Amino acid sequence: MKLLDGKALAAQIRGEIKERVKNLNIAVTLAVVIAGENPASQIYVRNKIRACEEAGIRSVCKHLPENCTQTELENALEELANDDAINGILLQLPLPEGLDERAALSKIPVEKDVDGFSEENAGKLALNRGGIVACTPLGVMKMLQSAEIPLSGRRAVVLGRSNTVGKPLATLLLNADATVTVCHSKTQNVKEICREADILIAAIGKAKFVTADMVKPGATVVDVGINRDENGKICGDVDYENVSKIASAISPVPGGVGPMTIAMLLHNAVCAAEAQESEKARKSRETRTAISAK
Question: For this structure, is 12 an active site residue?
Answer without folding.
Answer: no
